Amino acid sequence: MASAERSRAGFEALLEHQLDSLYQSGLRLTRNPEEAEDLLHDTVLRALAAYDSYEPGTNFRAWMFTIMMNTFISKYRKRMREPTVSIEQAPEPQAEGSVDAQVFDRLLSDQVEDALRAVPEAFRTAVVLVDLEGLSYREAAQALDCPPGTVMSRLARGRAMLKHALHEVAIESHYDVR
Amino acid sequence: MTCADFRSLLTPWVDGELSPRETAEIELHLNACGGCRHTASRERRFVDWFKRSASREPTPYALRTRLLALARGKHEAVPIPRFAFFSSLRPALGTVGTGAAILASVFALWAFNLQRLNRVEWCQAFIDDHQEGLVAGVSLQHSTSSPKQLAAWFTRKLNQAIAVPEVSDARLLGGRQCVLKGHRVGLAVYEMENQQISLFLTSQQQLRPPGWTLSSGRYHTASENGFSLAAWEGAGILQVLVADLPVDQLLKVADRFRQAPN
Predict the structure, then answer these.
(1) Cα distance between residue B59 and residue B70, in whole Å
(2) DSSP string spanning A47-114?
(3) Please, how many CA atoms are within 13 Å of residue A9, restricted to the half-sphere of its CB?
(4) What is the torsional sign of CA A88, A73, B221, B243?
């Protein structure tokens, strides 16, 4: 029907604004670029098929994240591959001369992502949805199909682990944690 | 409010998720308690720092292009010619009435010329048809929840005696006929745990891919892009199950379909 064509065009326009958020979250969830691509692909397909159920004017972003989390939980959680090698494990470059002078300079954001990758999935998911994607507890609870209280406790645990892992990093980046 | 109370509310307080009353009580406590004030400030600053410091990277360009094309209803570009038929077919489905659209799609599928039917293309044909059903929402030609009724409809439409399985936790939605490699195939669509499952059924011998022996009790499986396929033969009927599941889960579902009464 003509209306199906119109509404599908609306879907693409809405999706375009959320794509980067969705992809990056997918990457943080699956910890693997190939899986993240598959996850996004399946998420978009499912969202397109379910687009009739989206109420125009309501929170599209939260709706998309719900679909993505649904897809992730039903399909990908069990078959996640090992996380890709973090920068920390990459061999340090060999240099001539003094060994002492090696300073392994790493981007702050890489260290933050590494720490996040090491957080167990349940807590990591809450941190991704609330802290990084700005969903409210209620929206995150809907996406994860759990009570808001669970979101809160997982978030607290995730943050505690990140604080523990990034304590030194935060200090070095001129943020005083004392 | 005690310090222990405050600590238990620290997380939602940082996120502004507390009620105005709870927030006011916390403000009161913080005014009076230096230790908690320090804890609160540290937590807030860490969370803000963390949010700032996480990477913000755009989606890789090729992936972005593919996903947006998918959202427009077009498949990804693949070298197999028949995809051109699908993507040019879609606008036609949008503007023509349902009955005519189904005729148009049957005709277009008939017009496909899959010269060589190797196993990959064979699997792809079924998976694509299942995927089309999900994305385009092609309506069923015969809606029924009764497997016997659908089997009777298949007998009339396809001139094939095909039994439709009844599976306890899969709801039959109905069926339609498909044309794959120029042969008519019955499709029964089920819903199981909010997922659409396609079961293709045919007694046509010619639709078996060359080199595949479907001895009873054995499955042939394939997967592509997250969709999986399991094929088996029962009582002379080729059955192909396609769903949006990993292969191991699909095989469990396939077991139930194979053993179901019909």
Answers:
(1) 15
(2) HHHHGGGSPTTS-HHHHHHHHHHHHIIIIITTT--PPPPPGGGSPPPP-SS-STT------HHHHHHH
(3) 6
(4) negative
List, for residues A109-150, the tens digit of each pLDDT value. Answer: 888 999 999 999 999 999 999 999 999 999 999 999 999 999
CA separation for the pair B25, B23 (Å, rounded): 5
HSE value, Cβ hemisphere, 13 Å, CA-based, for B155: 10
Q: Any idea which residue has 């139930």 for tokens?
A: B256
Note the pLDDT tens digit of each residue in B3-46.
999 999 999 999 999 999 999 999 999 999 999 999 999 999 99
In the three-class reduction of DSSP (H, G, I as helix; E, B as strand; rest coil), residue B75 is classed as coil
pTM comes to 0.54
* Residue in the block written with tokens 């809160």: A152
Minimal C-alpha gap between B16 and chain A (Å) = 9
A152/B11 Cβ within 8 A = yes
Residues of B within 8 A of A4 (CB-CB) are: 93-94, 137
Cβ(B228)–Cβ(B129) below 8 Å: no
The interaxial angle of helices B82-95 and A2-30, nearest 10 deg, is 130
Size of interface A-B (CB pairs under 8 A): 119
Give the C-alpha separation, A83 to A69, whole Å.
Answer: 19
Q: Is beta strand B195-202 parallel, antiparallel or unpaired with respect to B237-243? A: antiparallel
Which site among A38, A112, A114, A178 would you substitute to test the B interface, given the most B Cβ atoms closer than 10 Å to its Cβ? A112
Q: Which residues contact A142 (CB under 8 A, 6 or more apart)?
A: A62, A66
Residue B68 has its nearest CB partner, among A15, A45, A78, at A15
Å between B15 CA and nearest CA of chain A: 8
Q: Which residues of A touch B72 (CB under 8 A)?
A: 8-9, 12
Rounded to the nearest integer, the mean pLDDT of chain B is 77
Question: In chain B, whose CA is at the least distance from the CA of A74?
Answer: B245
Contact A79 B246 (CB under 8 A): yes
Q: Which of B260, B41, B63 is nearest to A37 (CA)?
A: B63
Instruction: List Cβ neighbours of A154 (8 Å cut-off, separation of 6 or more).
Output: A122, A123, A125, A126
